[in-house]
């Protein structure tokens, strides 16, 4: 047996064991890593107002707490407005449920010539084994539901704490990271961090502005149309259509259409038409002007990034996909060298009269290109 073979076997087994341990540790801490990723992007979005308050003389800790409190109040107001709509609708459905059942039973008796009694039907339903089984299963799953609720609250608390630390200790964190890098790398890291802050903050603020405009426009339309709960539905459409990727527009328009349908079926059609028209106005007029200086990213690229983020990390990946892609695009745009396009002729050319000229800027100087119609071009040094 060669002398190196036992050492090679021991080394291979050690590497395999280390790989298995690292894989197990990664899967066990995947939830924590996703929470840290969300907190990092939230901290990047909060850093511009925190820096502005710090320049005014406020310490970063209280400034971060103030910005976070404002966001918390805005989120609580949104869920309170939405919760009032849902609670009222559920209450109305529960109150009118006996009348609905009576109408359905009356229609069945008149159509199929049956003799179904509502009281006897409800009694048999309550005494059935199916209902008893579902009640027993629901009682047993109370602990599971409670654990899920507490787990979600703990996850939100974890994200909030990491967001606060990242935003409050942003300069200290950058200094600690750059202290282990050579000076040339420090410049690259600081530039990448600045681009990330600009793009993420720009994405959040542009979406917030478009959500505000959308909420006001839909509120005015719902109020004129007489749709119930117009303020809450306007806020719902504005927030969901802007901050829920890909399917946000459809989810935003479904709820006001449903509530309008309960009041007047024709109102639901008017709501659908207005949602579609406003979406076109936003896509072609409003969004390009608002996002031109913040997150200038092509809609196809944004859609592809959302699909890729969803496939990789689910809902969390869909939420952070657009700011991450905008950051990467801004970082590449700062380092990738761009050249002027040379005008060509032929199938894709635009020049007339048989020849076209263009210029290309590069490290080797300027070159002038000339092409013949229908043939390949020749180059001459300019």
Automatic annotation (TrEMBL):
InterPro entries (alphabetical): AI-2E-like (IPR002549)
Keywords from the named record: Cell membrane, Membrane, Transmembrane, Transmembrane helix, Transport
Source domain of life: Bacteria
Gene Ontology, cellular component aspect: plasma membrane
Cited Pfam families: AI-2E_transport
Membrane topology recorded in Swiss-Prot or TrEMBL: Multi-pass membrane protein
Transmembrane intervals: 30-46, 66-87, 142-167, 208-227, 233-251, 258-281, 301-322
Location of the region described as Disordered in the Swiss-Prot/TrEMBL record: 350-382
Biased composition regions of type Gly residues, renumbered to the chain: 350-364
Subcellular location: Cell membrane
GO biological process, one term: transmembrane transport
Family per similarity comment: Belongs to the autoinducer-2 exporter (AI-2E) (TC 2.A.86) family.
Listed name of the protein: AI-2E family transporter
UniProt lineage: Bacteria, Bacillati, Actinomycetota, Actinomycetes, Kitasatosporales
């Amino acid at each position: 047996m060669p002398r190196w073979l036992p050492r090679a076997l021991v080394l291979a087994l050690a590497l395999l064991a280390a790989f298995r341990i690292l894989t197990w540790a990664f899967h066990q801490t995947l939830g924590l890593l996703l929470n840290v990723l969300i907190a990092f992007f939230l901290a990047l979005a909060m850093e511009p107002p925190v820096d502005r308050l710090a320049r005014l003389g406020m310490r970063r800790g209280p400034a971060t707490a103030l910005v976070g409190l404002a966001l918390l109040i805005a989120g609580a107001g949104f869920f309170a407005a939405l919760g009032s709509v849902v609670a009222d609708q559920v209450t109305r459905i529960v109150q009118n449920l006996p009348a609905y059942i009576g109408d359905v039973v009356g229609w069945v008796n008149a159509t199929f010539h049956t003799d179904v009694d509502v009281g006897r039907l409800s009694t048999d339903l309550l005494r059935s084994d199916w209902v008893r089984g579902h009640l027993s299963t629901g009682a047993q799953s109370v602990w599971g539901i409670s654990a899920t609720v507490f787990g979600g609250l703990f996850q939100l608390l974890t994200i909030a704490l990491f967001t606060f630390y990242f935003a409050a200790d942003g300069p200290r964190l950058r200094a600690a990271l750059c202290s282990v890098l050579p000076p040339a790398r420090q410049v690259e890291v600081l530039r990448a961090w600045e681009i990330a802050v600009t793009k993420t903050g720009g994405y959040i603020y542009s979406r917030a502005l478009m959500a505000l405009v959308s909420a006001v426009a839909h509120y005015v339309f719902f109020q004129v149309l007489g749709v119930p709960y117009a303020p809450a539905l306007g806020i719902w459409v504005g927030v969901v259509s802007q901050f829920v990727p890909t399917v946000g527009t459809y989810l935003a328009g479904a709820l006001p259409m449903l509530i309008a349908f309960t009041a007047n079926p024709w109102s639901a059609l008017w709501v659908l038409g207005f949602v579609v028209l406003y979406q076109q106005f936003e896509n072609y007029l409003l969004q390009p002007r608002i996002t031109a200086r913040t997150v200038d990213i092509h809609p196809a690229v944004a859609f592809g990034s959302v699909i890729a983020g969803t496939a990789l990390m689910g809902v969390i990946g869909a939420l952070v996909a657009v700011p991450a892609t905008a950051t990467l695009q801004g970082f590449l745009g700062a380092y990738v060298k761009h050249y002027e396009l040379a005008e060509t002729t032929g199938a894709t050319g635009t020049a007339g009269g048989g020849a076209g000229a263009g210029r290309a800027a590069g490290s080797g100087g300027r070159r002038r290109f000339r092409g013949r119609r229908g043939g390949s071009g020749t180059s001459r040094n300019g």
